[in-house]
Amino acid sequence: MSGAVTLPNPFTALRLLLVPLLWLLALAHQDAWLGAGLALAALTDVLDGRLARRYPRFKDGRFDSVADKVLTFSVVVWLVLLRPELFRQHPGLMLTATAVYAAALLVGWFKFRRVSGLHTHLGKLGGLVQAVFVVHAFVFSGYNPALLYMALGLFILASAEELLILLTHAAVDEEAVRSIVPYLRQRFGRA
Prior knowledge:
Layout (H helix, E strand, L loop, with lengths): L9 H18 L3 H24 L6 H22 L2 H5 L1 H22 L8 H19 L5 H24 L12 H7 L4
Helix pairs in contact: 1-2, 1-3, 2-6, 5-7, 6-7
């Protein structure tokens, strides 16, 4: 697709435009509406990928990654504000998730001079479970511990995978790299 003009993906743009509205809902303690808005944001994340696959001119992984990171950061702040018990009851798990994610961001920045935005299979699965957890936590005014462990466990694994990819590759095509597995197979001689 070299030379082709890419356009902003309208679903990604919608996700970014939702963030200020979601902030207003969070600050007004409208938890159920916040949860519903997050469900809509998660849907835009699914739809932007489908649109990009069908119409490559809408394929802009960096724009999608910016939207994902803005929403992820916002969700963490909303959880701190509206569900502080998560952080009080699970400080080690929260610290581990933060540390591994921050390490991946920092390695991407220092090694490639940009915040990486890999769309790995593990990251996509984790994103789905995280969306279910967060929507549930806000809509039902509490949280499900099993969903929390699944969501954070997958978040940690996906962040660790991204960190390993960034550390083991001299260059990373963010549109092509979906897993660390092909690299490990090549490195350790398994075809």
